[in-house]
Amino acid sequence: MMAYIVRRLLYALPILIGVNLLTFVLFFVVNTPDDMARMQLGVKRVTAEAVESWKRERGYDKPLLYNADASGMDRATDTIFFQKSLKLFSFDFGASDSGRDIGYDISQRMWPSLAIALPVLGVGLLVNISFALFIVFFRATYIDFGSVVLCVGLMSISGLFYIIGGQYLLSKLLHLAPISGYDTGLSAWKFLVLPVIVGVVSGIGAGTRWYRTLFLEEISADYVRTARAKGLGERRVLFVHVLNNALIPILTGVVVILPLLFMGSLITESFFGIPGLGSYTIDAISSQDFAIVRAMVFLGSVLYILGLLLTDLSYTLVDPRVRLL
Amino acid sequence: MLLALSLVACGEGPWNDPYPASQEGASIVYGSFSERPKHLDPARSYSSNEYAFIGQIYEPPLQYHFLLRPYRLVPLMAEVVPEPMFFTEKGEPLPPDAPPEAIGFSEYRVRIRPGVRYQPHPAFAKGSGGAYRYHHLSAEDLGGINRLGDFTETGTRELVAEDFVHQIKRLADPAVHSPIAGLMAEHIEGFGELSQRLTEARAAADSAESNSFLDLRAFAFAGAEALDRYSYRIRLRGRYQQFIYWLAMPFFAPMPWEADRFYAQPGLRERNITLDWYPVGSGPFMLSENNPNLRMVLSRNPYFHGESYPEEGMPDDQAAGLLRDAGGALPFVERAVYSLEKENIPYWYKFLQGYYDTSGIASDSFDQAIGFSSQGEAVLTDALRERGIELLTAVESSVFYLGFNMRDPLIGGDGESARLLRRAISIAVDYDEYVSIFANGRGVAAQGPIPPGIFGYREGEAGINPYIYRWEEGRAVRRGIEEARALMERAGFPGGRDPATAEALTLYYDTTASGPDDKARLSWMRKQLAKLGIQLVIRATDYNRFQEKMREGTGQLFIWGWNADYPDPENFLFLLYGPNSKAQSGGENAANYQNPSFDALFDRMKDMTDGPERQAVIDEMVEILRRDAPWSWGYFPQAFSLHHAWVRNLKPNLMANNTLKYRRVDPALRERSREQWNRPLVWPLALVAGLLLVGGLPAVRIHRQRERGRAL
User: Fold this and answer.
1) Contact (CB<8Å) A176/B680
2) ipTM of the prediction
3) Pair B606, B242: CB distance under 8 Å
4) Scanning every residue of chain B, which has its alpha carbon at the shortest distance from the alpha carbon of A127?
5) Coil, helix or strand at residue B612
6) Contact assignment for A47 to B684 by CB distance below 8 Å
7) Which residues does residue B110 pair with via DSSP β-bridges, in sequence order?
């Protein structure tokens, strides 16, 4: 298994370089170092000298990808791409274009993201699986039909509507929770209630339908027929045997998104005023802070690759027949 | 869901209260901000969202009187408002009314108030031997230090004239990147030379990084010198009358050398401990919490020197209750808590719930807040009035205009045809309608470049632009589209057709507006020109490309704006001064307008003091502009702001940025109102739970039927 992990990590290197290159090209197609400097220096009374000085200090005065004036390897290495990308691979994110330490900011802002993402994932799983089992239990009845219609309805509503509707209903009309905001430590929980409820409810439609499909597939398997033939009750068949066997796709589906929970949610964090990594990325894009954008895309890629690797590993844990070679 | 919400109910007060119970009844101002301030260093900061914070922390020599209009400069750190002294090139004194061409240098001698101390800060902390406690930090010292508050000791010291000089030197330091360095280099004696010397000194010390410490005290500077402990002198080349206004901006606030020394130490920048993040001022407030991802808190500076509420105001101020606190000791509140609020909807809801004291009005919520009386006057809706909310309005010292690129061969230039074409377009583009549709009536169509409230602006019939408006029944009425069409004909484009091609004249409109929300605006603009038969092609780009076009002077029609730095007509008329052409010199004249007569008048006007003579020159300049029409004059936006009944001493002051100290709140009324407006309603949830239970009964029935049924 170790060899497999090492091999997968080595495969990740060209992927990360490619992602980095793509981010770099896409970013600089839209923005030039001059634009970035003007964004940081402001729009009033900015002189060309100030722009040049800003670029020089931050290393944005070099060519983007190829330095024709240099010789040898310097043609590739004395460029913005090389200088700004190399350190990423040692997870040294450096300073943002506004001068702040990106690593420190990420370490501070990942916790609020996790504080929302983990409860939404945990409670969402519990609610969706329970609801899916309930529907499967009453399959081929009007409860099944009604629930599927409800799920399709829930899926059809935009995520933004859930947020605005949740804020309006629970906070504005019923005055049950703060509409937005955040706090550090234990004081944070009262701000998490509303986004977590909204996150869970908005995921019920899609989640329940997905798990219902998994359970229905399992329920037609031979072992279920055998269990029923042995005289086991429907509840036991469903909640013990079917649920156990459906855990493999559920687990793999969950493991793959686990690392990405760190990255936060762009819209939720913005509407609820949560200072997480999602809003960090959005702010960086709007302020043209390439250093942060590059770091966050790199981090996202690493976490995604890690998620896929963990998924493969989790197969071996839940299904002893699987071997990684 | 019920369980989660019941947990929220465990605290005191309303369940939806976002603030801790410990703040109940405290004299705190609650506000919000929508984006992180980029800079808090007074040498770099240059935008209103940054001034909202540093304006309360840093104290420049002068400030604007809170109540008097027109805006008047009064002393803040200075003992009196300094008068400029004039000298010949050889240094011989000249009388105050000396002609500008005779003036070689002007000097401002500023005497500051003695006994003023800085806020507590670790940069001033000293050990028992008198040595600075934190000026030689080692890697071990920095263990466990992540924020400025992690330094256990603080100190203070008296503010001296040398600190003002130090800050002016910082403006010249290229490593600081002050946005006004270029402008000041044109005026302050030896400023450019100092910049050069500082650059060389840094290079020589092989410390080009901006965080390395360079002791600016060691650099002599003819432009700013301390005369004694409490006096300093600023020396300008020639006469620059508007310089006095700069002395009321944070750029010229004092900066102790200790702050530079402290923040330049290795390891602090890596911990985000910089002057750009943690200010060091002497004002009524200090930044006690700086977490712009969450909240920023200003707390009362324990060493504040003290100041009194103004005792003089405008005639209406007494009736408005603005003089009730006359002579009272400032500041009136203990703290100001600003929370990050990125979206308009939660911001507006929280204001209505009483969790923010004041609010602007976003277009989404405008109809909920404002209605118009039969006289067209903006009034609050009944729902808001019942809550005791009050409305304040003021025409801003800003302008948004439709610019014509005067370098363009078709629409620009000094030819009669292009001039008539521009005037025709100016009539057709109905900015009165624009304000009504897109700004909810919050604006005044401009008659020229100078907004109301600034010297040079003329009211009534004398102030209308006769090329675009006529005066009828006591009000300005836009000229009819027939007149614009007639101008088109005289310009050589009858019916909007280009005689060269016999097709509709095509013009290009450069804009950054490309989102779905902008569609209506762009469509409106197209229709305005279509009235003349002109086909308008929209060239929507991102802001960077738009800026680039403006810098290169390749646009044709464009929208641009300006927010005044100070209340002087020079700060608007310079936007059309030839040498400031954006394409030629990177200045702020985005239309690239050049008119030698206008430029000559501008050179005269900028050095004149306000009075009939200056007004006459301004009138002449405005007439030239109206005739040439380098802008279609656009509109002056009007600020609408709301505040709750528990907030007092609010008066729109578009120049002052340090007005928090005047504000007073009634915490008891606020608490009562919040309680009343935010009583939790639980029964709807109980109803939903009940419905779910009732809805589950058929499921139970089906289950029982199945359990009892026979297997097939």
Assistant:
1) yes
2) 0.84
3) yes
4) B1
5) helix
6) no
7) B232
